[in-house]
Amino acid sequence: MAIVRAAEWMLVCPPEQAENSIRGAMAELGLEPEGPLGSIRGKSKTALLKNRWSATVEAILSREPSGTKVVWRVDMLGTKHYELLADIAEGVGDEMFDDRGLRGAIDRLHKASRIFGRKEVRHVRNLLYATERVLELGQGLYQGKQGLIVLTSERLFFLEKSLGSETLEEFSLPAIHSLTVSKKMGGEKLTVHASGNQSDIKQMMHGQADAIVRAFRTVKETPRSTQPPAAPPPAAPPQADLLGQIERLAELHSRGILTEGEFEAKKAELMGRL
Asked: Which CATH class is domain 1-98?
């Protein structure tokens, strides 16, 4: 029985550019993208060398103030859903992604944590909601499993990823009453007090639990009315960029990715901006 996995991307470009990039990346991978503008669907074949089953991939695009939100749905057997999305992301290009604070948080991690939790760190982007940003990362032991602790603007979650399995435990920020830290020679313990329960994350490196607590207090104490406003919508693309988009649409049409009707409708919309 197939398993469905979902992910949300934030791309720092208008939906038209995001759509062209995603369709092009999927076409290069042989996924044969189809569907109307804003809704892309493709299918991959079983890849024996990658130990990956065939899959159905769907993407829904929507305009956001800071760019484009892409909601993915991958339906396939096995556990390689996010590997397939990683292949598409590589084709789209890292420069198109809003990393939502993840790169800075990784840079603040101790080197040993970055090495130990490399599987989890690579996987965090697949688990983020499009509306949240990463504030701090840490590494520790939770319910006998070693993994990554992620504090975002919306929740605190623990991620453990191993071959063939994944553990994700999360606490929404409104549900967390407080975070406390205890310290020993061997490391720090972060205690989460949420909804009348207490959860301990042990063996964190010195400074990591403290950093998470400081960031948590800052976001909890900041009134929503004083939080930074959303970024302004992207400016309308210049004429040269519009012509470039029309050329890319023509290429997608000539390769059979866009139908005649889809191509003419989109071309007319772009021509109206010239």
From this structure: alpha beta
